[in-house]
Amino acid sequence: MADPARPIRVLLVEDSPSDVALTEVVFGQAKTDIQLDVANDGIEALEYLEARDCDMAAMPDLILLDLNMPRMGGHEVLERLKAHDHWRRIPVIVLTTSKAEADILGVYDRHANSYIAKPVDLPEFIDVVSRIEDYWLSVVQLPTRTGS
């Protein structure tokens, strides 16, 4: 469970402005204090992490990762995350429109922590993001940002 003394930092790697906006709304209403940072593609996500690499306390507690993005997609981002000494422990939830078996197998082969197909229906999308908050930010014990 989260330390109530500090906000949970979530990095959302998503190129859809509407999905970003909906996630911001749902997390804004969360029971947990969430600081949501957004990267619009894989390159921005890696730059975000590289800029914080010397300060573990500034790293995200959780990453929500889309697969199909411009410049660098989620599969490559996930591969780089899990190969990095500091970033590999950050739980990664793949949240994408793809239901392709190859994508599902590919992200688990790259050590994703969860794979969730985004619902196209607005109320269902809101429900899924709320469930992510309920489970990953209220129930799960996340690694501390200061851990080496």
UniProtKB/TrEMBL annotation:
The modification 4-aspartylphosphate is found at D66. The keyword Phosphoprotein applies. Gene3D superfamilies: 3.40.50.2300. Signal peptide: none annotated. It comes from the Bacteria. PROSITE patterns: RESPONSE_REGULATORY. Pfam families: Response_reg. Residues 9-133 form the Response regulatory domain. InterPro entries: CheY-like_superfamily (IPR011006), Sig_transdc_resp-reg_receiver (IPR001789), TCS_response_regulator (IPR052893). Keywords: Phosphoprotein. One of its GO terms (biological process) is phosphorelay signal transduction system. This is Two-component system response regulator. The lineage of its organism: Bacteria, Bacillati, Actinomycetota, Nitriliruptoria, Euzebyales.
